Amino acid sequence: MTNIGVFDTGLGGLSVLSELIKKKNANYFYLGDSKRAPYGSRDEAEIIKFADEIVNFLEEYDIDEYVIACNTISVIATDYLSEKYKKKFYPIPIYGIKQASKYSGDFMVLGTEATVNSHYYKHYLETPGKSKVYEVAARNLVPLIEEGIIEGKEIDDNLKKYLSIANEKKIPNLILACTHYPIIKEAIKKNLTYNANIINPATCLASEVNFYETEKNNIDIFFTEINDSTKIIIDKFIDTDYSLKLKEI
Questions:
Q1: Is 178 designated active site?
Q2: pTM summary value
Q3: I need a labelling partner for 8 at 20 to 30 A (CA). Which of 1, 41, 54, 236 fits?
Protein backbone atom coordinates (compact mmCIF):
# COMPACT_ATOMS: atom_id res chain seq x y z
CA MET A 1 0.00 0.00 0.00
CA THR A 2 1.30 3.45 -0.94
CA ASN A 3 0.52 6.36 1.36
CA ILE A 4 0.95 9.80 -0.19
CA GLY A 5 0.85 13.00 1.85
CA VAL A 6 -0.32 16.13 0.04
CA PHE A 7 -0.40 19.49 1.78
CA ASP A 8 -1.08 23.16 1.17
CA THR A 9 -1.93 26.35 3.01
CA GLY A 10 -5.60 25.69 2.33
CA LEU A 11 -7.90 24.92 -0.59
CA GLY A 12 -5.43 25.46 -3.42
CA GLY A 13 -3.70 22.11 -3.15
CA LEU A 14 -6.95 20.39 -4.08
CA SER A 15 -6.10 21.31 -7.68
CA VAL A 16 -2.93 19.21 -7.27
CA LEU A 17 -4.68 16.36 -5.44
CA SER A 18 -7.25 16.21 -8.24
CA GLU A 19 -4.56 15.77 -10.88
CA LEU A 20 -2.76 13.10 -8.82
CA ILE A 21 -5.96 11.11 -8.30
CA LYS A 22 -6.54 11.04 -12.07
CA LYS A 23 -3.03 9.72 -12.74
CA LYS A 24 -2.24 7.26 -9.92
CA ASN A 25 -4.13 5.23 -7.35
CA ALA A 26 -2.90 5.56 -3.76
CA ASN A 27 -3.97 6.22 -0.22
CA TYR A 28 -3.99 10.02 -0.22
CA PHE A 29 -3.85 12.07 2.96
CA TYR A 30 -4.39 15.77 2.29
CA LEU A 31 -4.05 18.59 4.79
CA GLY A 32 -5.04 22.19 4.06
CA ASP A 33 -4.03 24.73 6.71
CA SER A 34 -6.86 27.18 6.01
CA LYS A 35 -6.88 28.49 9.57
CA ARG A 36 -3.42 30.04 9.11
CA ALA A 37 -3.68 30.90 5.41
CA PRO A 38 -2.30 32.75 3.60
CA TYR A 39 1.37 31.94 4.14
CA GLY A 40 2.60 34.25 1.38
CA SER A 41 3.07 37.31 3.59
CA ARG A 42 4.71 35.42 6.48
CA ASP A 43 8.46 35.29 7.14
CA GLU A 44 10.57 32.24 6.29
CA ALA A 45 10.94 30.98 9.87
CA GLU A 46 7.19 30.94 10.37
CA ILE A 47 6.52 29.20 7.04
CA ILE A 48 9.06 26.49 7.91
CA LYS A 49 7.55 26.06 11.39
CA PHE A 50 4.03 25.66 10.01
CA ALA A 51 5.18 23.26 7.28
CA ASP A 52 7.00 21.17 9.88
CA GLU A 53 3.84 20.97 11.99
CA ILE A 54 1.83 19.81 8.98
CA VAL A 55 4.29 17.05 8.09
CA ASN A 56 4.61 16.00 11.72
CA PHE A 57 0.85 15.41 11.76
CA LEU A 58 0.80 13.53 8.46
CA GLU A 59 3.63 11.26 9.64
CA GLU A 60 1.01 9.56 11.85
CA TYR A 61 -0.27 7.94 8.65
CA ASP A 62 3.02 6.27 7.71
CA ILE A 63 3.48 8.47 4.63
CA ASP A 64 5.80 7.07 1.96
CA GLU A 65 6.20 10.23 -0.14
CA TYR A 66 5.00 13.82 0.00
CA VAL A 67 3.72 16.28 -2.57
CA ILE A 68 4.11 19.90 -1.49
CA ALA A 69 1.00 21.29 -3.19
CA CYS A 70 2.00 24.88 -2.46
CA ASN A 71 4.52 27.10 -4.22
CA THR A 72 5.19 29.19 -1.10
CA ILE A 73 6.05 26.20 1.09
CA SER A 74 7.99 24.60 -1.78
CA VAL A 75 10.39 27.49 -2.32
CA ILE A 76 10.90 28.14 1.39
CA ALA A 77 10.80 24.78 3.18
CA THR A 78 11.58 21.87 0.81
CA ASP A 79 15.24 21.53 1.80
CA TYR A 80 14.44 21.71 5.51
CA LEU A 81 11.67 19.10 5.30
CA SER A 82 13.67 16.73 3.10
CA GLU A 83 16.61 16.84 5.50
CA LYS A 84 14.54 16.43 8.66
CA TYR A 85 12.25 13.64 7.49
CA LYS A 86 14.62 11.92 5.01
CA LYS A 87 11.79 11.30 2.58
CA LYS A 88 10.94 12.26 -0.97
CA PHE A 89 9.23 15.64 -1.20
CA TYR A 90 7.94 16.73 -4.60
CA PRO A 91 8.04 20.56 -4.70
CA ILE A 92 5.61 21.93 -7.27
CA PRO A 93 7.73 24.80 -8.73
CA ILE A 94 10.20 22.35 -10.25
CA TYR A 95 7.40 20.92 -12.37
CA GLY A 96 6.16 24.39 -13.22
CA ILE A 97 9.58 25.17 -14.63
CA LYS A 98 9.64 21.92 -16.59
CA GLN A 99 6.28 22.71 -18.12
CA ALA A 100 7.12 26.38 -18.75
CA SER A 101 10.39 25.49 -20.48
CA LYS A 102 8.36 24.01 -23.34
CA TYR A 103 7.22 27.51 -24.30
CA SER A 104 9.15 30.35 -25.88
CA GLY A 105 8.88 34.05 -25.23
CA ASP A 106 8.40 36.04 -22.04
CA PHE A 107 6.70 34.82 -18.88
CA MET A 108 4.59 36.36 -16.17
CA VAL A 109 4.68 34.67 -12.77
CA LEU A 110 1.51 35.21 -10.74
CA GLY A 111 2.20 34.15 -7.16
CA THR A 112 2.22 34.99 -3.49
CA GLU A 113 4.62 37.53 -2.01
CA ALA A 114 6.92 34.80 -0.66
CA THR A 115 7.12 33.00 -4.01
CA VAL A 116 7.68 36.21 -5.96
CA ASN A 117 10.28 37.48 -3.48
CA SER A 118 12.22 34.22 -3.82
CA HIS A 119 12.60 34.90 -7.60
CA TYR A 120 12.55 31.11 -8.02
CA TYR A 121 10.96 31.07 -11.47
CA LYS A 122 12.91 34.12 -12.63
CA HIS A 123 16.20 32.45 -11.73
CA TYR A 124 15.48 29.38 -13.84
CA LEU A 125 13.51 30.81 -16.76
CA GLU A 126 14.91 34.24 -17.55
CA THR A 127 17.43 34.20 -20.38
CA PRO A 128 19.02 37.50 -21.47
CA GLY A 129 17.96 38.36 -24.99
CA LYS A 130 15.44 35.50 -25.17
CA SER A 131 12.98 35.41 -22.26
CA LYS A 132 12.10 38.01 -19.67
CA VAL A 133 10.23 37.00 -16.53
CA TYR A 134 7.79 39.46 -14.97
CA GLU A 135 6.74 38.75 -11.38
CA VAL A 136 3.46 39.86 -9.79
CA ALA A 137 2.56 39.25 -6.14
CA ALA A 138 -1.21 38.78 -5.99
CA ARG A 139 -1.67 39.49 -2.29
CA ASN A 140 -5.48 39.44 -2.19
CA LEU A 141 -6.32 36.34 -4.20
CA VAL A 142 -5.68 33.56 -1.66
CA PRO A 143 -7.79 35.17 1.11
CA LEU A 144 -10.68 35.66 -1.33
CA ILE A 145 -10.50 32.08 -2.59
CA GLU A 146 -10.34 30.72 0.96
CA GLU A 147 -13.57 32.63 1.66
CA GLY A 148 -15.17 30.94 -1.34
CA ILE A 149 -15.12 34.07 -3.51
CA ILE A 150 -14.04 32.62 -6.84
CA GLU A 151 -15.95 34.82 -9.28
CA GLY A 152 -17.65 38.19 -9.45
CA LYS A 153 -16.69 41.84 -9.14
CA GLU A 154 -14.22 41.52 -6.27
CA ILE A 155 -12.21 38.82 -8.02
CA ASP A 156 -12.40 40.68 -11.35
CA ASP A 157 -11.26 43.99 -9.84
CA ASN A 158 -8.22 42.34 -8.27
CA LEU A 159 -7.35 40.38 -11.41
CA LYS A 160 -7.56 43.50 -13.58
CA LYS A 161 -4.89 45.02 -11.33
CA TYR A 162 -2.65 41.97 -11.15
CA LEU A 163 -2.92 41.19 -14.87
CA SER A 164 -2.43 44.77 -16.05
CA ILE A 165 1.21 44.28 -17.05
CA ALA A 166 0.33 41.06 -18.89
CA ASN A 167 -2.44 42.82 -20.81
CA GLU A 168 -0.23 45.83 -21.52
CA LYS A 169 2.71 43.80 -22.85
CA LYS A 170 0.75 40.81 -24.18
CA ILE A 171 3.03 38.43 -22.28
CA PRO A 172 2.55 35.06 -24.02
CA ASN A 173 3.05 32.76 -21.01
CA LEU A 174 1.33 33.05 -17.63
CA ILE A 175 2.49 30.77 -14.82
CA LEU A 176 -0.04 30.10 -12.06
CA ALA A 177 2.60 30.04 -9.32
CA CYS A 178 0.12 29.35 -6.54
CA THR A 179 -2.04 26.25 -6.42
CA HIS A 180 -5.05 28.34 -5.39
CA TYR A 181 -5.13 30.07 -8.78
CA PRO A 182 -6.39 27.16 -10.93
CA ILE A 183 -9.59 27.46 -8.87
CA ILE A 184 -10.16 30.85 -10.55
CA LYS A 185 -8.70 29.93 -13.94
CA GLU A 186 -11.87 30.93 -15.78
CA ALA A 187 -11.85 34.35 -14.11
CA ILE A 188 -8.20 34.75 -15.09
CA LYS A 189 -9.02 33.95 -18.72
CA LYS A 190 -11.91 36.39 -18.60
CA ASN A 191 -9.69 39.23 -17.41
CA LEU A 192 -6.95 38.68 -19.97
CA THR A 193 -7.49 40.77 -23.08
CA TYR A 194 -5.59 38.31 -25.31
CA ASN A 195 -4.92 34.57 -25.55
CA ALA A 196 -2.06 33.39 -23.32
CA ASN A 197 -0.56 30.03 -22.47
CA ILE A 198 -1.81 29.50 -18.93
CA ILE A 199 0.65 27.15 -17.22
CA ASN A 200 -0.60 25.06 -14.30
CA PRO A 201 2.34 23.22 -12.66
CA ALA A 202 -0.02 20.66 -11.10
CA THR A 203 -0.70 18.98 -14.43
CA CYS A 204 3.00 18.43 -15.06
CA LEU A 205 3.72 17.28 -11.52
CA ALA A 206 0.96 14.65 -11.60
CA SER A 207 2.42 13.15 -14.76
CA GLU A 208 5.93 12.87 -13.35
CA VAL A 209 5.64 11.86 -9.69
CA ASN A 210 6.91 8.33 -9.23
CA PHE A 211 5.43 5.91 -6.74
CA TYR A 212 3.83 2.46 -6.71
CA GLU A 213 0.09 2.42 -7.30
CA THR A 214 -2.49 0.73 -5.10
CA GLU A 215 -5.57 -1.04 -6.45
CA LYS A 216 -7.84 1.97 -5.84
CA ASN A 217 -7.82 5.46 -4.41
CA ASN A 218 -8.56 6.13 -0.77
CA ILE A 219 -8.80 9.82 0.09
CA ASP A 220 -8.68 11.40 3.54
CA ILE A 221 -8.93 15.19 3.60
CA PHE A 222 -8.14 17.30 6.65
CA PHE A 223 -8.56 21.05 7.10
CA THR A 224 -7.56 23.16 10.07
CA GLU A 225 -10.64 25.29 9.42
CA ILE A 226 -13.83 24.39 7.58
CA ASN A 227 -16.35 26.97 6.39
CA ASP A 228 -19.41 26.97 4.15
CA SER A 229 -17.35 27.02 0.96
CA THR A 230 -14.92 24.22 1.88
CA LYS A 231 -17.00 21.27 0.74
CA ILE A 232 -18.26 23.15 -2.31
CA ILE A 233 -14.72 23.67 -3.57
CA ILE A 234 -13.64 20.14 -2.62
CA ASP A 235 -16.50 18.76 -4.70
CA LYS A 236 -15.46 21.01 -7.58
CA PHE A 237 -12.16 19.11 -7.79
CA ILE A 238 -12.68 15.70 -6.19
CA ASP A 239 -15.31 13.62 -7.99
CA THR A 240 -14.83 10.41 -6.00
CA ASP A 241 -15.52 9.34 -2.42
CA TYR A 242 -13.50 11.01 0.33
CA SER A 243 -13.63 11.64 4.05
CA LEU A 244 -13.44 15.21 5.39
CA LYS A 245 -12.31 16.00 8.93
CA LEU A 246 -11.45 19.10 10.94
CA LYS A 247 -7.96 18.84 12.41
CA GLU A 248 -6.14 21.15 14.81
CA ILE A 249 -2.36 21.10 14.49
A1: yes
A2: 0.93
A3: 1
